[in-house]
Amino acid sequence: MANAFALDRIAPGYTDKFQRAFARYQANRELKKAYRATLNELQELSNRELSDLGMHRSNLRSIAYQAVYHAG
């Protein structure tokens, strides 16, 4: 902690920038993790199940991407 305090005194705002960047990194990792989980679940469906849902196997990546990154 002493190093963070000293760094904050030398370069004010530097630690805040680092914390924001690290928070964005963590949020992006969580989104990527959710994308992979969604894609894996969709890939486990059979062609018939996908057809029943109106999906095709070639569209799974885009469907998973939209579900995770454009949700809400």
Question: What's the short story on this structure?
Answer:
Residues 34-60 form the YjiS-like domain. The protein is mainly alpha-helical.
- Beta percentage is under 5%
Helix content: over 70%
Structural class: mainly alpha
Give the termini distance in whole angstroms: 38 Å
Rg calculated over all Cα atoms: 20 Å
Main pleated-sheet profile:
none
Low-confidence stretches: none
What oligomeric assembly is this protein in? single chain
Mass-distribution shape: rod-shaped
Average pLDDT, to the nearest integer? 88
Tally the beta strands: 0
SS element count, helices: 4
Secondary-structure element sequence?
A: HHHH
List the main descriptive attributes of the protein structure presented here.
mainly alpha, YjiS-like, DUF1127 domain-containing protein, 4 helices, single chain, 72 residues
Commentary on this structure:
- By secondary structure, the protein is mostly helical.
- The protein has four helices and no strands.
- The protein has helices at 2-10, 14-43, 47-52, 60-69.
- Helix 2 (14-43) crosses helix 4.
- The protein is rod-shaped.
- The mean pLDDT is 88.
- This is DUF1127 domain-containing protein.
Topology:
Layout: H1 2-10, H2 14-43, H3 47-52, H4 60-69
Helix pairs in contact: 2-4
